[in-house]
Amino acid sequence: MSGEQKTEAKVEQAKGKLKETAGRLTGNERLTAEGRAEQATGDAREAKEKVKDVFKH
């Protein structure tokens, strides 16, 4: 996995987790949902990079 792509995926996951937590603490369901969506996007990006790595080797 390229280091840059891996970092972007981890950052996206972390931002999503922060948004989700903030949403839960404030009772803001929209923010919670945005956080979950951002985490899912980061997870998908990470999975895509892992698949690319499998086919490289």
TrEMBL record:
Residues 1-22, 31-57 have a biased composition (Basic and acidic residues). InterPro entries: CsbD, YjbJ_sf. Residues 6-57 form the CsbD-like domain. It comes from the Bacteria. Gene3D superfamilies: YjbJ. Transmembrane segments: none annotated. Residues 1-57 are annotated as: Disordered. Belongs to the UPF0337 (CsbD) family. This is CsbD family protein. The lineage of its organism: Bacteria, Bacillati, Actinomycetota, Actinomycetes, Kitasatosporales.
